[in-house]
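Hey,
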Amino acid sequence: MTGPPASSPTVITRLRAAGCVFAEEEARLLCGAATTPDHLDVLVQQRVSGLPLEHVLGWAEFCGLRIEVDTGVFVPRRRTEFLVREASRLVKRSGRAGSTGRAPVVVDLCCGSGAVGAALAAQAGPLELHAADVDPAAVQCAARNVMPLGGEVHVGDLYTALPERLRGRVSVLAVNAPYVPSAELGTMPREARLHEPRVSLDGGVDGLQIQRRVAAGAPRWLAPGGYLLIETSPRQAPQTVELFRRNGLTARVARSGELDATVVIGTPMLDGAERRRSPE
């Protein structure tokens, strides 16, 4: 027998027995990805062994896009679509407000697979897109998602990865940095703990270690009137706000009940003279 197999009740049963909550949907996707019954058996075995569905398939759906996700790379979460939604609105505003005729510069920092940057390019282009991550495996994956959309991908530790020419020019800096406190990593779902890199999950003792560094460096990279957006948790949001303000950024909290998502948004504070010249 050759050709892709049809969805099978046996596959659904195996997935349910392994604890897959959405067994029917997963069975449909796995059967659609398989080229032969033997291939299907391999995919199902990978899934029931605990490999995330996105790693088995090699892609994740995010903001209506099919984002390639390699094994060992952070899987984009649906809640992060709210970060894209908020960033997209600000990118479009930056494009309208720009007087140079240049496309807004957008940076997807701690990019993982590059899902946020790819979605922004699809929703809010044209823009000059850059994605960066400290993990070479993530950058390799992000390149396949971002570069076909005209973006550039960089490897390195936060701002050290970015080209110097971007300093002071970034219109929107979108960041999904790890924010899980180190002591709470053990409470995360098994799929994440075992199959996603710790560097993409561990936010340090209080979960704010990377956010602290991002907020401290942002004013040097943002353009006048540029925006920093950081995904965080409802519990940590007040502390994230304080990090923004301590580093000369305004701060407000945006929240989506639908996606159970929280984003803190800020822009460099104006001094007194600038406030008087700035339109409301």
